[in-house]
Design brief:
This protein is of the alpha+beta class. The chain has a single domain, classed as Up-down Bundle (Outer membrane efflux proteins (OEP)), CATH 1.20.1600.10. About 65% of the residues lie in helices and about 15% in strands. The protein has a four-stranded antiparallel sheet with strand order 2-5-7-10, with helices on one face. Strands 1-6 form a two-stranded parallel ribbon. Strands 3-4 form a two-stranded antiparallel ribbon. Helix 2 crosses helix 4 and helix 3 runs antiparallel to helix 4. The longest helix is centred in the first third of the chain and has 68 residues. The two termini are about 45 Å apart.
Length: about 475
């Protein structure tokens, strides 16, 4: 396939692209951002971390309440054992059961509970700010990828226009060759120029496809799906740079989640230091319990008429109502289950005091490490402020430079295009050479590309400045 046929095929396919994409959903920048914030895996994982920290905060509040537990145990003992109900030694099998309800409450623990609440509150807040910082990073990444697609779409359009102009000029050169105005070398030069433009257009189209793929990956979309983006009306206006970088930094420090999260981590470290210091204090705990027991080893005399036996053991009335065995001893029966539960009911209350005296300097080491954590969190906070200041000042300086470059490139573009038109007319008349024509065309192409690059750079940098002022990222 020769160069002319391949060029015609590419132009035909390019012309068919809009008709094939009519069924596509055209995504605006805001739709891309909303979709990414909802579907991005890293953000979803970060939100789960924040939710987990919320559960831990709830648990730290719950820890200030007393514990309450109930339980029961039962079993059989074989061989020589002491029955818990009768405190007698038995060698036969004994079946027993314990039922107990217990409660414990920390009266004093070096203020660790209240400091733990404050620690987890700061931690939960820091996790939420981390989620916001990650969302901001995703928004900026989506916006950058979106503008990259727009840039390469414009570049592809410029490349197609350039190729079309060169193809038209190639046809004119061939006509001039037939008329004897130009030499065969001029035609060969124009064919080489057309082939170079064709190569540039294919490379630009490939860059466009790659930029689309990058954006779709950030959106967690299937690369095989049909996808197109909306083209906004981009404006270049120096009014967008009215605020000084110091003013923008001052606003950003009050709203940027990364800075606020770093500040919360200072509070976390302070509460962590207070918690470790609390390990030096005694711990006072109140414990209370109540329960009852049953054992089949608990016996009582068998009486004929239990309701008529008010006297004490050994009284005449009791002896008359007892069933006596052959040895004159009373017959015994296992005390009923419910009777034992009522008779064996017990209660207990206890105060426990734990005083740390020496624990291999563990507390001292923990306190020193907590102080180091506090200093690190302060340095992290200062680092986050410095990073925001650096990003904003660089963006402001780059935006100013891009604006000046855009103004200069626009003037250069207009002059280069006008010069190219003049050279083209001269070339068509046979006055200008192929070399002069190509040099004028290259200057015009370079000027158009420089103006396009500076425009997109200015737009992106000014939008970053707006973003850090809390205005979102809109085109």
């Amino acid at each position: 396939m020769n160069t002319k046929t391949l060029t015609i095929l590419i132009i035909i396919l390019t012309a068919l692209t809009p008709s094939q994409s009519k069924g596509q959903t055209v995504w605006s920048l805001q739709q891309c951002i909303d979709h990414a914030l909802e579907k991005n895996i890293d953000i979803r994982r970060q939100r789960l971390q924040a939710e987990r920290s919320g559960n831990e905060l709830f648990q730290s509040y719950a820890n200030i309440f007393p514990s309450l537990n109930a339980g029961s145990s039962g079993g059989m003992n074989f061989g020589r054992n002491i029955d818990e109900v009768t405190n007698e030694v038995f060698t036969q099998r004994i079946t027993s059961q314990n039922i107990q309800v217990s409660s414990s409450y920390n009266l004093f623990a070096g203020f660790r509970n209240i400091n733990n609440i404050r620690y987890n509150l700061s931690r939960h807040t820091a996790f939420k700010y981390d989620t916001g910082r990650m969302e901001n990073d995703i928004i900026l990444a989506i916006a950058n990828a979106y503008l990259q697609v727009l840039y390469f779409k414009d570049m592809a359009e410029v490349s197609r226009e350039q190729l079309e102009v060169v193809q038209q000029q190639l046809e004119r050169t061939r006509i001039l060759l037939e008329g004897g105005t130009v030499s065969r070398g001029a035609v060969l030069d124009m064919e080489a120029t057309a082939a170079g433009h064709e190569e540039t257009m294919i490379a630009t189209e490939n860059q466009l496809e790659l930029s689309y793929l990058e954006l779709m990956m950030l959106l967690e979309l299937d690369p095989s799906m049909s996808f197109a983006i909306e083209r906004p009306d981009l404006q270049v206006d120096e009014v967008q740079l009215l605020n000084s970088p110091d003013q923008i930094v001052e606003r950003a420090l009050l709203t940027e989640p990364g800075v606020l999260g770093a500040r919360e981590r200072i509070s976390m470290a302070e509460k962590g230091l207070a918690i470790t210091r609390g390990q030096r204090y005694p711990t006072l705990t109140l414990n209370a319990s109540l329960g009852t027991r049953y054992s089949d080893a608990a016996k009582r005399p068998v009486v004929n008429n239990p309701g008529d036996v008010p006297g004490m053991y050994g009284s005449p009335a009791l002896r008359q109502s007892m069933n006596l065995g052959g040895n004159g001893q009373p017959a015994l029966e296992t005390i009923p289950y419910m009777d034992q539960l009522n008779d064996n009911y017990y209660r207990a209350i206890q105060l426990s005091l734990y005083i740390p005296l020496f624990n291999q300097f563990n507390v001292r080491t923990n306190v020193q490490n907590s102080r180091i954590d506090l200093e690190q969190s302060k340095l992290g906070y200062q680092r986050s402020k410095n990073d925001i200041s650096r990003v904003i000042n660089h963006a402001h300086a780059d935006a100013q430079a891009a604006y000046q470059q855009y103004i200069s490139a626009t003037k250069t573009r207009e002059a280069a295009i006008e010069s190219f038109r003049h050279t083209e007319q001269s070339f068509n008349l046979g006055v200008a050479s192929t070399i002069e024509y190509n040099e004028a065309r290259v200057r015009a192409d370079r000027a158009r590309i420089n103006a396009l690059q500076s425009m997109y750079e200015f737009v992106f940098m000014t939008k970053i400045l707006e973003f850090y002022q809390g205005k979102g990222f809109t085109l």
